[in-house]
Each structure stands twice: as structure tokens, then as C-alpha cells.
Amino acid sequence: MRFLAAVLLSASALLGQGQDFNGDLLQAALRGRNDQVKAFLDDGADLEAVDRNGRTPLMLAAQHGQVATVELLLGRGANAAARDHEGATAYVLALFSPEGHGNHEAALKLLPRPPRPKMALDVKWSPIKLVSSCFVTREEVARVVDGLHLPEQFLRVFGAYVQASGRNLVELVGEPADADALLRVELEPASACVAQSGDNLSLSIEARVLREPGGETLFQKVFGSGLKGLHAQTANNLEQYGPIFEPWIKPHAGPIYWAAAGEVYRLTIAR
Q1: Which of 35, 86, 21, 97 is nearest to 60 (CA)?
Q2: Secondary structure (3-state) at 118
């Protein structure tokens, strides 16, 4: 207690000398050091000070799950609607970019939840990476893969994830005109004949979030073979294509959902 008192007295003395303690306030909020947060605010630190990312003390406290600090800052009048340089509020940071080992769920309950955004999906597949097969022509391989109905499988898995594990944060709608943003997904199964081995198969999925069809791309990323457990496999015949490709879709649903939902929340809050 003596050490803490000395720290607080030192802070007050420096503030009295004109020292800018906004940076110290931000660090104290991030670490959940409420006594320091109170002292800095009482001595004139800016409640809405921002770091180089445009994040306020409330944003940092929420992002790190510092529940008591979030409550303190809200009680002091912190602006929960403030956005950082990427358009994220304290709620969005705690939900989509949590850091540390704090209680993010409890922090979220203290913050105003924005309206649930609407997102439309456009899912297709491309034969561009079906280079060759040891068993049939490239055109026949494309027909075989088309018969697997990979886009329909993705839509089914993605919808199930939204309901079960995605906390139903976004509302999936059928028409882009009714949505706040469009998630465009392109599945790219790949095959290449490897002499004396069979067809080498892999799957990558490109996800893009657009403001509207043909509009600005807000997010773009390829999810694919770099993920653990999704490395290429060899098919010894065409019948193995389905059992190899189909299980690869499910592990992608979660990462694509969270990336897309975060962008849609940022977009709708910024409007």
C-alpha cells in the first residue's frame, strides 16, 4: 500500500508540473489498475485520450477484459460509441479482438451492444486450380468436383456455425439488397497428377467482404492449406475426391465467420 501511495503521489506531483499523463492513463486502463486510472483522471488526464491506433482508455480496458476498469470509465462518462482508426468501438474490440486473460464476456455485458447487422452470402467454386488428373481429363475432373456441390456444403456448414458457435451475431439474409454487406466466398479445389502416386488434392477458400455487390472490398483473405490439418492429400481414384474435399470445408467456417462478422460490425457502426 505504501508503494502504491507513493506512485499515486508521484503521478499527482508530475501532473502538477504540467506532465502529460494521457499515455499513462491508457496503460493503466489496459492493465486494469483502477487506483491509477482514478488518480490520473482526477488530476486532469483526458478521459477520451487515444493511442496511436485511436483507442481510448475504455477501448483498451474492454479489449483486455478489465471489467472493473470498464465500469469505472463508463461511470466517469467515457464514450462507448467512440471508434478507433479501423472503425472499432470498445464493444467490437472486446468481441472480435480480445487480448489478455481478462473477463471479456463480463466486459461486453457492460457495454451497449450495437444492432445486429445483416450479411448476405454469395458462394461459388472455381475449377481454375484443377490442373490435371492421373485418371481422367481435366474437364472430367471438373465435372466430378461440380457433382460434389461444395458451395451448398459450405452454406450449410456456415449457417450451422452461425447458430451454434457464432453466437448469432449477424443475421444472414438471402438478398444482398437487404444486407449491410456481402460475404463473397470462392472455393478453389486443386488437383494435380503426381506420377506413380495419384492426384494431389488441396483446397483454398477466398473470402471477401464487400459493401455491396460490385462495391468496395472491405476485407479479403485466402483460407487454405496453411492451416493445421488441411495439408494436401493424395487420391488414388476419383471416388476419393469427395471424402477428401468435404471434411476440409468445416474447419474454415469459423475463421471466415469471425473475420467477416468483425468487418460487418465495423461497417455498420461507422454509418
Answers
A1: 97
A2: strand
Cα dihedral value 62, 64, 65, 70, nearest 10 = -40
Can you give the pTM of this predicted structure? 0.81
- Average pLDDT on 100-118 reads 94
Report the C-alpha gap between 256 and 54 in whole angstroms: 26
Give the domains, in start order, of the chain with CATH numbers.
2-110 (1.25.40.20), 118-270 (3.30.160.150)
Q: How far is 237 from 229, CA to CA, in rounded Å? A: 21
Asked if residues 160 and 168 have their Cβ atoms less than 8 Å apart, the reply is: no
For residue 138, give every residue at least 6 positions away whose Cβ sits within 8 Å of its Cβ, in sequence order, or none: 130, 131, 132
Query: Which residues make Cβ contacts (< 8 Å) with residue 47, sequence separation at least 6?
Result: 41, 56, 57, 73, 76, 77, 78
Q: Could you say which DSSP state residue 76 is in?
A: T
User: Contact 145/125 with Cβ under 8 angstroms?
Assistant: yes
Q: What does the pLDDT look like over 88-102, one tens digit per residue?
A: 999 999 999 999 999
As a whole number of angstroms, the distance between CA 54 and CA 64 comes to 16
**Angle (CA) 89 92 95, round 5°:** 150
Instruction: Output b/e per residue, 22-42; b: 16+ Cβ within 10 A.
Output: bebbbbbbbbbbbebbebbbe
Mean pLDDT of the chain: 90
**Ranges of H-type helices in 150-240:** 150-164
Task: Give the Cα separation of 24 and 45 in Å (integer).
Answer: 9
CA 263 to chain CA centroid, Å, is 7
Read off the pLDDT band of 225 (50, 70, 90): low
